[in-house]
Design goal:
Oligomer: single chain
Largest sheet: 6 strands, parallel
Number of helices: 16
Number of strands: 12
Structural class: alpha/beta
Shape: elongated
Number of domains: 2
Helix content: 40-55%
CATH class of the largest domain: Alpha Beta
CATH architecture of the largest domain: 3-Layer(aba) Sandwich
Distance between the termini: 56 Å
Order of helices and strands: HHEHHEHEHEHEEHHEHEHEHEHEHEHH
Strand content: 5-15%
CATH superfamily of the largest domain: Glycogen Phosphorylase B
Amino acid sequence: MRVSTMRSIDQWVGIPACFIISPFRWLSDLLRSAKKTKPDTRRTLFIELSEMGSAVIVDPAMRKLQTEGKAELYFAIFKKNYKSLGILQTVPESHVFKMNADNFGSLVIDIFRFMIWCRKKKISTVIDLELFSRFTALLSFFSGARSRVGFTNFHDEGLYRGNLVNRPVRYNPHVHIAINFISLVNKALGLFENPYATVPVSAGEIQLAKATVSAEATENIKNKIRQLFPEWNNESIVLINANASDMLPQRRWPQENFTEVAKQLLAAFPDIVIVATGAPAEKDYVEEVVKMTGHKKCINSAGFFSFEELVPLYSISTCMLTNDSGPAHFASVTSLKVFVLFGPETPHLYLPLGGNAEPFYLGLPCSPCVSAANHRKTTCLTRPCITGIQPATVLQRMEIFLKANDSISLATISG
């Protein structure tokens, strides 16, 4: 199902549905004394359907609930996005409900499957991670959980989704989304009562765990690189991710800009190989960048590596240049240096965790133009926030890093 279709359904069906069901929520909570009882976090379900990157960003919050709330974790996510949740393996696959959103019919069937699944798993608390989605608010209620934690607009106008969440937390659009996620967990732990998240979140609480990569997985990636480029002799790998998801295509930096950076890097650093990554559906788009670069050491790997092979690929690479998209967050579970191009969104809210991400962001007066307030929708076509980032600026910072990295490597060899 197209993103625009899901947004329309969420608005035109979701709003009246939330309005109609809200009185039943009030009655149900009254009969169950839901608001008078401290949340039982022993079987907690997190809901984050549509954002692959958020499935990584929420990991510190889930681990905190696991440690402090002794929680057995469950997760609901769209089937096509599940693999992002499996990167750190915090939630076992048997505890994940994968919802099929290919068409409206399959979605309706899976709503009923979800209701049955939640009752079989005896879900006691739900934490809705979505930013004001009526659909996930309804799912929270249909789960049958006594405690339902989620974002609320509180005194803000708009963003109506009924009163289906009974442990509301005011969403703060001025702090990183990871902090907002931790605040939801703090609410579930009973650390504050009113909707304002008054409990501080320390830097240590949003530290991201690192993925474990086996020697076998690393060797497999090296062999696959040699399949793509038989002349590869362990030169440094520089990754380029030129595409972004269809959910927000305005995030794409122009292909010719990626091409210019690739050309200049290959001219300045003869001991690197550039691997352009992407999903199978992005192969033609990525191929345009590779063709325009016109160098044998710039290789199209779109569709060649499986999703499970991305983390091992990141672990042996030197750095990556990417649009603000899923791969930036997937790479954050490794030590890979990531240069992220931000346009309609802002690094202040969505910079990948892990400490190795460096943003390019113009911060125009109109930026960010997408937010929870407009359900991350923009119709800007000129996109000066992203097209205005100059290749020379990007190249300068990447060259500084690669030169320093080369010096470190030489010093290590000499030692």
